[in-house]
UniProtKB/TrEMBL annotation:
The keyword Nucleotidyltransferase does not apply. GO terms for cellular component: actin cytoskeleton; cytoplasm. This is Gelsolin-like domain-containing protein. GO terms for molecular function: actin filament binding; phosphatidylinositol-4,5-bisphosphate binding. It comes from Callorhinchus milii (Ghost shark).
Length: 150
């Protein structure tokens, strides 16, 4: 498995069957501080999780051991991790090595239901497009491609 860079527009969108490595660099008066996070999707394989951990360790070694490493589990992310994504976090079904395919974000022939949670850090999770997915008190978005219904 090889890490693949993501386009900026994909930041904050995570596929449940994948693992991600996120590096955050903050400039300070004394230089920089670095944080390496590896995010683990709830449907990711042990191989993917192990590969992400190894890549983070290798990147940390390459950077001289300066970064602090964090493991982030889907739906249990740290406040620091959530703060990197000002527009919130979106969980999507599927993943690279799974039987699912990544959904193109500008496709018009999609049908999906997103469950929104949170107040300060919004998280949107793709759920089954079924009446059983709904409940009282939460917000859901029905994405039909060219039409989005709340």
């Amino acid at each position: 498995m090889e890490p693949v860079p993501l386009p900026t527009k994909a930041y904050g969108t995570f596929f449940e069957g994948d693992c991600y490595i996120i590096m955050f660099v903050k400039r300070t008066s004394t230089g920089t501080s670095q944080a390496l996070h590896f995010w683990v999707g709830k449907e990711s394989s042990q191989d993917e999780q192990g590969s992400a951990a190894i890549f983070v360790t290798q990147l940390d070694d390459y950077l001289g051991g300066g970064p602090i490493q964090y493991r982030e589990m889907q739906a249990h992310e740290s406040s620091a991790f959530k703060s990197y994504f000002k527009n919130g976090i979106v969980y999507k079904k599927g993943g690279v090595a799974s039987g699912f395919n990544h959904v193109e974000t500008n496709m018009y022939n999609i049908k999906r239901l997103l469950h929104l949670q949170g107040r300060k850090s919004i998280m949107a999770t793709e759920v089954d497009l079924s009446w059983r997915s709904f409940n009282n008190g939460d917000i859901f978005l029905l994405d039909l491609g060219k039409v989005i219904v709340q």
